[in-house]
TrEMBL record:
Chain segments carrying region Disordered: 1-20
The UniProt record lists the keyword Nucleotide-binding: no
Cofactor(s) listed: Mn(2+); Mg(2+)
Pfam families given in the database record: Exo_endo_phos
UniProt keyword list: DNA damage, DNA repair, Endonuclease, Hydrolase, Magnesium, Metal-binding, Nuclease
InterPro entries tied to this protein: Endo/exonu/phosph_ase_sf, Endo/exonuclease/phosphatase, TDP2-like
Protein name: Endonuclease/exonuclease/phosphatase family protein
Upper lineage: Bacteria, Bacillati, Actinomycetota, Actinomycetes, Micrococcales
GO MF annotations, alphabetized: endonuclease activity
Residues covered by the Endonuclease/exonuclease/phosphatase domain: 24-263
Organism: Kocuria aegyptia
Amino acid sequence: MAAHVRPGPADPPGPRGRGAFTAMTFNIRRPMEKYRRMAPDAWFTRAPAVQAVLRAHRPELVALQEVLPQQLHPLRQGLGPDHVLLGGGRDADGGGERCLLGVDTARFGIEHWRQRWLSPQPELPGSKWPGDLFPRTLVLADLTDRRTGVRWRAVATHLDPWPERGRLRQLAALQGLLHSWDGPLLLLGDMNAAAGRSRTWDAALAGGLRDTLPADAAGTFPRYRDPRAGTPRLDWILYGGRVRVLGSRVLAERPRGVWASDHFPVLAELEHDGGPTS
């Protein structure tokens, strides 16, 4: 891994070159039918705020978690016509929650992509480890930056909230796909484990990945509240290979006074730390 100095929370972003782009991970919270229209958790209330966050930052790569089919159209409106959403439902019949990878095809060419289940049978839809709460998936895409020619691998995922041994199995199931790549790579997702204070975090960094955020970054799971001390940072953007982080932050934004989700998104501005590759 290349040496890297991360900017502190008060540092301005570094100079933006033609190879810089933005990546985001955002758990948008699935619709919950039990909540009234104007409740903080109601999708009807939150959908415009989710769109506002996406429009404001226009990430060229974005991992989205807890997505159900009725949320796809608002997400596409928020991202714009050049984005495609890669991934499907996690259940055996193709239904259920989706963990998606959004790619701005005006910026990145998609060489190849696939969805896999984090289980002993990764090709089997709906499969999971015994004891896991839900089937969990990853979406992997090999991409070519149209501006620089650099090839990237991006992986979006969403791990179980408990038990930690289940998360560790799920993380191990995807690590082989990361280590088989010799270029710059990104792992984006809701890991349901606290950055800096969980075995899942330790295992991810032991595998060679690095954090885009400073160690004292704000938590990402405030449950429709203002940022506060002690909130865990469950949402990560990690990188491997020759990657330079120009800036990164937790987006504690409230468009028109509405929290978009019970999670805060994470945004990072990145570039390849080296010249163009073939």
